[in-house]
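[Discussion] Sanity-checking designs against the backbone

I'm trying to build intuition for which residues belong where. Below is a structure token string of 301 positions. I'd appreciate it if someone posts a full sequence so I can compare it with mine line by line.
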């Protein structure tokens, strides 16, 4: 029991660290959104140029004034500097750089950061499982979890959850809830190689660590070690899962928490960590490919 208690303590510390990082990153994403305002094209609202020809003849006092007005109109106004003018000299104005998003952190650096943090946490958690001699079956790593039925249910659940997740996010946006898609946009790769790294390395590491912690440990291991109802643990882990995605805004927390409970259901009925990993990966991969890869929003309302 001492080993289980120590393992639980380590798991909770990692959970708190993860939630703390999520809370710390939320303002950064919010600021990034606020620094990309919808800027009206000032050139379309240029100051109207007074045209003396629109004035009635009575407004011109004498012939000299009329001649002066004609002379002024004959002198072309100096061209305005424009960022669209190829002859414009100098860097764009600060607000133009912000609007273009050039001040954003490069996506590869964000991906590297996510990969490092999740990989580090996953390594620490796996080490704790090994040192505490936690049975692999307790966290859903069992040959039965690789059965065709479990894998098929995990795949089908992932597709269904992707559709429900998209519909939930669309309704939340319609109702005015703060649901940020900025984080996904910032993580979107800028090259083919980046997409390969995202889909083959980064997303599997994210799904693997989060499922190991939120489903394998917080539900499976805690149920095996302390006899707590898995459904009660599913509620707690789903709340923590939602809070762990605080950078996605209030709507993101609500939608992700609901998604977490669905994944908890899948874990309990299949007792398979691989099944929930598949479902989690499918949801994340579809979101990136559909929205950021193809620029589509098929469930917008």
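Best answer:
Here's mine. Compare freely.
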């Amino acid at each position: 029991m001492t080993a289980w208690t120590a393992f639980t303590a380590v798991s909770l510390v990692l959970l708190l660290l993860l939630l703390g990082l999520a809370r710390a990153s939320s303002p950064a994403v919010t600021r990034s959104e606020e620094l990309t305002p919808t800027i009206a094209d000032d050139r379309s609202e240029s100051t109207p140029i007074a045209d003396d020809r629109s004035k009635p003849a009575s407004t011109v006092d004498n012939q000299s004034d009329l001649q002066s007005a004609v002379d002024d109109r004959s002198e072309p106004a100096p061209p305005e500097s424009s960022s669209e003018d190829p002859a414009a000299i100098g860097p764009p104005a600060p607000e133009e750089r912000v609007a273009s998003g050039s001040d954003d952190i490069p996506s590869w650096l964000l991906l590297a950061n996510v990969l490092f943090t999740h990989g580090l946490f996953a390594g620490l958690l796996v080490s704790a499982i090994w040192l505490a001699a936690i049975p692999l079956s307790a966290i859903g790593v069992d040959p039965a979890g690789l059965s065709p039925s479990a894998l098929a249910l995990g795949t089908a659940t992932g597709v269904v959850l992707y559709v429900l997740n998209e519909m939930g996010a669309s309704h939340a946006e319609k109702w005015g809830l703060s649901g940020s898609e900025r984080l996904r946009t910032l993580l979107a790769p800028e090259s083919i190689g980046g997409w390969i790294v995202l889909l083959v390395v980064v997303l599997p590491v994210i799904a693997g660590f989060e499922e190991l912690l939120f489903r394998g440990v917080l539900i499976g291991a805690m149920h095996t070690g302390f006899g707590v109802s898995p459904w009660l643990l599913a509620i707690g882990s789903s709340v923590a899962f939602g809070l762990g995605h605080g950078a996605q805004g209030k709507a993101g927390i609500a939608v992700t928490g609901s998604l977490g409970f669905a994944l908890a259901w899948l874990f309990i009925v299949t007792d398979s960590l691989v099944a929930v990993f598949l479902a989690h990966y499918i949801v994340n991969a579809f979101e990136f490919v559909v929205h950021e890869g193809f620029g589509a929003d098929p469930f917008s309302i």
